Amino acid sequence: MISPLSGDRASPWPRNAFLVARREVRLRLRSRVFAVTTVVMVVVVAGGILAASYLHAGTTSKPAGVHVAFSGGSQALEPSFRSVAAALGQSVTVTNVADPGTGQSQVLAGTLDLAVSGSATAPTGVADESLPSMVEIALDAASQDARLAAAGLAPAAIASVMADVPVQRIQPTGSSSQVLDQNVFASLLVAILLFVSIGLYGGFVAQGVVEEKATRIMEILLATIRPSELLAGKILGIGLVALLQLGIVAAAALLAGGLAREVSIPALGIVEVASYFAWFLLGFLLYAAAFAAVAALVSRQEEVQGAVTPISVLLGVSYILMFFALSNPTAAWVTLLSVVPPSAPIFMSMRIAQGVAVPWQVGLAMALMVAAIVGAVWLAGRIYANSAMRVGMRVPFLEALRG
Amino acid sequence: MSGTNQKQLEIAGISKRYGDTVAVQDLTFDVRAGELFGFVGRNGAGKTTTMRVVLGVLTPDAGVVRWLGEPLTFAVRRRIGYMPEARGLYPKMRLVEQLTYLGELHGMAGADARDAALRWLARFSLADRRDDELQALSLGNQQRVQLAAALVFGPDMLVLDEPFAGLDPVAVDVMADVLRERVAAGVPVIFSSHELDLVERICDRVGIIDHGRMVACGTVDELRAGGPDRLWVDVPSAPSGWADEQSGATVVRIDGSRVLLELAEGADDQAVLQAALAAGPVREFRRAEPSLVELFRDVVGDAQS
């Protein structure tokens, strides 16, 4: 039976793009590449957060449970040792032991960190080799108090002798804090993750486009659906896979942040994390369209690297400059780069993570980004449609643009 | 069913050049409903370019492709089953998934597409390979999948670029049966091939293309009618050279005692028969039907000079 076909049959644009996207999602979720990259990202990100919180804990907070035991005359030092240790932010557990020998054997056994013996003015100590230096300083100070008292000084006089020199810490204008705090660390992590995932998934788009040219299925596809449907479906499908993977990574990051609960990381707030997703999506759409366009110019997998180089360089330069911007996120050039499209995804999310992004700048950056995406998709669609069927020689860029 | 002489697909005045190379020049022909149309020509003659223009993957410099009298639209093109010269499917996709996907892209519902995919895989004896990736198959089997891909969505027309190339004899028979079956269902089929015996055997009409122009088009009988009459005459006891002096006939070929004569315009074959009888007992006297291979050599040779 021949159906007299007419041109008025609605051509299902969204359905075709959906079918293409669904194929991408299915095949990619099944691939080993997805499993491996997900595991690597989770390990790097969650591990990084846990490491950062550990590092932070190591420098400023107090590892609990330094056990110190006094014997003989040195027991008189206990009260002042306790108070100095507390002032130094070092938590200690103080006990008594009968004699120096018991103390030493407990240190050897690992149940005691420091055994103090001797008199109050001439104490000696045996300590585990990992004894925090703060504990030693506290012991020195306590024994100095005792010696000063023995030398005839009144407690009030001792206090005035031992008074701290007041030092006020200020940050010089124009320079930046040297402290690598958690937000800087988190912003670095976010920027790296964004760079890696935009590059990775943009690269998948480029490879996918060339795969279809190299395997020649392009000819069947383009006899069936429009180039724009194919392009949109491909970008959409790979984008969804990327969002899923980043969702897994983000969940792991939040979980790791929860495990390291001694510290709260402002850069891992819900709003912040949501904004990283938004910036990933914007960045991905822009770069994926650009990658697809240049990839359509070549026909073989070996040529993909060369074809996408200009786009990769653009992304790479933003990434490298980000390292210089990390310590100075409010500088004028950093603000500018966080607003203009090619560098905005990495720069703006870095600044959001550091908590220095101003709302109007974020809004402007997003608006410019959306405009750039619209332009890039239009351009990519044109180049793609004009070069998708041209297998063999690399298609000159301007020729592909003209059609 | 529509009338069988209806012009289903018309290729009207198509021209296409690549730079300085003319691929197709003012090419015109048509394919009718329920017709198997064989498209033959030497390599580079313009067959693939023509098919790509029909499928809309190439835009012609001039001319138009019509479907039932109207310019071919995108929606109609989606209903054409196409097997491109450059074979290509996804190497890492499972057969049944791949065919289902293509069926869906052509507008089928998911379940229908899957049913059709399984049916065609069975038809091409690939049912047990349905969950294999395409790249795991031999080239011949990949070719069968490629054919299934063109057929899976129940196309309203088939355009096949050398569908028989690379197939084993069993697969050739299956393919020929499938094409005949589609044609019987009223689907016009156009395919290119270098296997002229096969084309002669199964096609309703043949188009011979050379240097981008259609140099002959019609049924094989019509193509024969255009040429001079030829006779095979066998007079075993006649002296060699008996036929050389026959007026109105020239010797084209000698095969043992058999002689192939070409009659001049208006010459009488009965005079030739009498001359043969005079030379000795006649064992064979029949009109020579040139094969498509011979017709092809004639027209393409003419076009060359």
State the order of secondary-structure elements of chain B, H for helix, E for strand. EEEHEEHEHHHEHEHEEHEEEHEH
The largest inter-chain interface, given as chain pair and residues per side, is: A-B, 32 and 42 residues
Terminus-to-terminus distance of chain B: 44 Å
Helix content of chain B: 25-40%
What does the overall shape of chain A look like?
Answer: elongated
Mean pLDDT of chain B: 86
Globular, elongated, flat, extended or rod-shaped: what is the shape of chain B? elongated
The proportion of residues forming helix of chain A, as a percent range, comes to 55-70%
Structural class of chain B: alpha/beta
The tally of beta strands of chain B, per DSSP, is 14
Poorly predicted runs of chain B: none
Number of distinct helices of chain A = 15
Largest sheet of chain B: 6 strands, mixed
Total strands of chain A: the figure is 4
Q: Overview of this structure, please?
A:
The complex is a heterodimer of chains A (403) and B (305). Chain A has 403 residues and is mainly alpha-helical. Chain A is built from 15 helices and four strands. Chain A has helices spanning 13-30, 32-60, 78-87, 100-109, 133-150, 155-162, 182-214, 217-222, 227-259, 270-295, 301-325, 332-337, 344-353, 359-387, 397-402; strands at 66-70, 92-96, 114-118, 123-127. Chain A has a four-stranded mixed sheet, sandwiched between helices. In chain A, strand 1, helix 3 (78-87) and strand 2 form a beta-alpha-beta unit. In chain A, helix 3 (78-87) packs across helix 5. Chain A is elongated and about 100 Å long. The two termini of chain A are 39 Å apart. Residues 1-10, 59-63 and 175-180 of chain A have low confidence and may be disordered. The mean pLDDT of chain B is 86. By secondary structure, chain B is of the alpha/beta class. In chain B, the strands form three sheets. In chain B, strands 6-7-8-3-9-10 form a six-stranded mixed sheet, sandwiched between helices. Chain B has a four-stranded antiparallel sheet with strand order 2-1-4-5, with helices on one face. In chain B, a hairpin with a 2-residue loop joins strand 4 and strand 5. Chain B is elongated, with a radius of gyration of 23 Å. Chain B has helices at 47-54, 74-77, 95-105, 110-123, 139-151, 169-184, 196-202, 220-226, 269-279, 292-304; strands at 7-18, 21-32, 36-41, 62-67, 70-71, 80-83, 157-161, 189-192, 205-210, 213-218, 230-234, 249-255, 258-263, 284-287. Chain B is built from ten helices and 14 strands.
